[in-house]
Specification:
This protein has 694 residues and is an alpha+beta fold. Helices cover 25% and strands 24% of the residues.
């Protein structure tokens, strides 16, 4: 029997593979786990470093032909720059979206298939969509920006920086400035208000349009519920109010080579809004406000004849005597009542002979308000025409409740201009009144007040925001092209005159110094045919005693469309004021009116303003952006009045380095692009320069 062989002759004990693997796993298991944790930690640190440190602060969102939109992480803002980054058009601070203190991750485009669109959802708070449009003809590029909240009760706010940008447009304010960088208004609805009742509000001419000196313009969608604030020399902000609805913030930002080019792109005539001229014969006639305290039409007629005789005796030429609403009501009481109340049958009773009255050239003042104690309002309730007035929703019995408000310290109702029947009734009533009085000119005031807001009620959509003022302007055009309104919004293309807000009788920015900035503001927004406040101001309703203020004021308004007086020049002891008034009325008729008529035709075709800031002829000249005491009529006449008390000299800047300007008083010629230091301008003079070879 053979012996069995020893299979492991080595002295080393036999070890199986399973045992070795188990021991190895126990040894390396902890080390591999630690290594994995270390790698994960390093990767996390790397990602955080990439997002916070290594990632650039600027992220390009959209790129056009010459401009692009950037997300600036460090300032939480959208920035539009040239592609070469050598010029910033505008910086838009994004508010109320996410946490400004926290870092915002890299912005991803959810519309990446379309290179002209950008879409993003911001912190599950709001959606943003931006589209880019280029116009090679005008060399402009426009960014259409829409923010939409993802939940209710979310207010959206974007703020436009004023750093290194002079801004124009928006709304008139009590202390008008040019540019508007010095304005300071807290966040409030961006609607027209009566500055005499609400001095901190927005004034009589308002458009959702802002123009920046860097060649940028902002146009806000007209259907957006909008609040606006101005922080002096810092920024202005657009905000949508909190609501049960998800209200969007929607606006367009256009950029171009300079501010004139982008303005002409944004403000060119719309096909459906063809510009129309008002009655240009109005320019030749000064307006004289008649302030009398009488209680009957007979006494008013006597005052009118006396005032008319004084104008003739002092050789002040033909003019228009402007009556207040109270005086107008006294006159209307002298004509056929039944006809005015809309009755088909003319009254058979005796009426006063108004033959002599019809020989006078007067303007009447009306408003859409009607006293609740008036015969007309009582008749409307009896006739079932209460829908002619702004009303509360129908009662369970189906009756409307006219909304009560106040106008000139009386309880009134206000005409419902969204009701075609009410508009027809009112226009027929006014036409009848004008016909019986042989009146050409009509002032329609009172569009600014909103009875719904006074009662904390939400107006119907047809009258939301400033639509009442727009509808009132449309109604005024039905009456005729000699109508004058006291407020304007989205109505600059209509055949109307707009009356400027009353100013203080002083030299401040609520008085004389506000006049030229207001002229430039109205004109830029398309309202070139305005009637400035009365010479010397009219807020006090008192006669002006400051002779120097009267003369300097007269010198400015003589170059404007219409000269208006409240203080007659014969109240001053010296004949100098009366003689100067005759001289400047004649200068207005002989020199200024032909210029306005010439550039009015240009306004019809291009919407270029008749009255222009100095940067209009030199849009790349930084010196022209903040000049608020000079203006141009067209491109050929520069007017530089005196607005400082006691001054007989002033600095005058002449724009356009390629131009030459000639002083009309002494025929001296000066090169453009220069500043005339301490240029002499006597009390009876105003500096006027004509561009050579114009």
């Amino acid at each position: 029997m053979p012996h069995a062989r020893n299979r492991n002759p080595s002295p080393i004990p036999e070890v199986t593979w399973d045992t070795g693997l188990k021991e190895m796993n126990e040894t390396w298991k902890g080390a591999i786990a630690c290594l994995g944790v270390a790698v994960f930690f390093v990767m996390t640190i790397g990602i955080i470093y990439w997002q916070v440190v290594d990632q650039p602060n600027k992220n390009w969102i959209l790129r056009g032909t010459f401009s692009g939109l950037i997300w600036e992480r460090s300032t939480h803002s959208l920035v539009i720059q040239t592609l070469t980054e050598n010029k910033t058009f505008v910086e838009i601070g994004v508010k109320n979206i996410g946490n400004p203190e926290a870092d915002v991750p890299f912005v991803r485009n959810l519309c990446w298939l379309n290179k002209t669109e950008f879409c993003y959802t911001w912190d599950s708070v709001a959606d943003i969509k931006i589209s880019l449009e280029s116009d090679d003809a005008s060399q402009t590029e426009c960014y259409n920006i829409t923010w939409t909240p993802r939940s209710c009760h979310m207010d959206l706010e974007d703020c436009f920086s004023m750093v290194n940008v002079s801004w124009y447009g928006g709304a008139s304010v009590q202390a008008q400035n040019w540019p508007i960088n010095n304005a300071s208004v807290s966040m409030r609805p961006f609607v027209v208000s009566d500055l005499q009742d609400d001095p901190s509000g927005y004034g009589s001419v308002l458009e959702r349009y802002f123009l920046g000196s860097t060649g940028v313009a902002v146009l806000v969608d007209p259907e957006v519920a909008l609040h606006v604030s101005f922080e002096r020399m810092q920024q202005f902000c657009l905000r949508t109010p909190r609501s049960m609805e998800r209200l969007p913030l929607k606006y367009t930002v256009c950029v171009g080579p300079n501010l004139k080019a982008v303005h002409q792109k944004m403000w060119r005539p719309h096909p459906s809004h063809k510009p129309a001229l008002p009655n240009m014969d109005t320019l030749w006639l000064p307006f004289w406000k008649l302030l009398v305290n009488v209680d009957s039409g007979v006494k008013l007629e006597r005052e009118l004849r006396t005032f008319s005789n004084r104008l003739k005796r002092h050789r002040l030429g033909e003019g228009v005597i402007s009556l207040t609403e109270h005086s107008t009501s006294l006159l209307s009481d002298m004509v056929d009542h039944e006809y005015l109340y809309g009755k088909k049958k003319v009254s058979e009773g005796p009426t006063r002979d108004l033959t002599l009255m019809r020989l006078l050239n007067i303007s009447v003042t009306l408003s859409p308000f009607l006293g609740v104690d008036s015969q007309q309002f009582q008749a409307s309730l009896e006739d079932g025409t209460e829908a002619y007035w702004l009303s509360l929703p129908a009662t369970p019995q189906g009756h409307l409740a006219p909304l009560l408000t106040q106008w000139k310290e009386k309880f009134c109702v206000k005409l419902n201009v969204s009701n075609p029947a009410a508009v027809s009734w009112f226009t027929e009533w006014v036409t009848s009144l004008r016909s019986q009085l042989s009146v050409e000119y009509l002032v329609l005031e009172g569009g600014e007040r909103n009875p719904f807001e006074e009662h904390g009620l939400r107006p119907p959509e047809a009258l939301a925001r400033d639509k009442y003022i727009q509808l009132l302007a449309e109604m005024a055009t039905r009456i005729g092209n000699s109508a004058i309104v006291t407020a304007g919004t989205r109505s600059s293309h209509m055949a109307l005159f707009v009356s400027m807000v009353p100013l203080s009788s002083d030299w401040s920015h609520t008085g004389l110094k506000s006049l030229i900035p207001s002229v430039l503001h109205y004109s830029l927004l398309g309202y070139s045919f305005f009637i400035p406040d009365a010479v010397g101001g009219s807020t006090s309703k008192e006669l002006i005693t400051d002779e120097e203020l009267f003369i300097r004021w007269l010198q400015i308004v003589s170059f404007l469309p219409v000269i208006s007086f409240q203080t007659p020049p014969w109240v001053y002891d010296e004949d100098r004021v009366l003689n100067l008034t005759r001289i400047y009325i004649a200068k207005h008729q002989d020199f200024v009116v032909p210029l306005i008529l010439k550039y009015a035709e240009e306004w019809k075709t291009s919407r270029n303003p008749v009255y222009r800031p100095l940067w209009w002829v030199s849009p790349d000249d930084l010196n022209t952006f903040t000049i608020d005491d000079e203006f141009l009529i067209g491109d050929e006449v520069l007017v530089a009045p005196v607005t400082e008390r006691g001054a007989t000299q002033r600095d005058i800047y002449l724009p356009g380095s390629s131009f030459q300007w000639q002083d009309v008083s002494n025929t001296q010629v000066f090169d453009g692009g220069t500043c005339l230091k301490d240029y002499p301008v006597g009390l009876e003079e105003v500096a006027v320069f004509i561009r050579r070879n114009s």
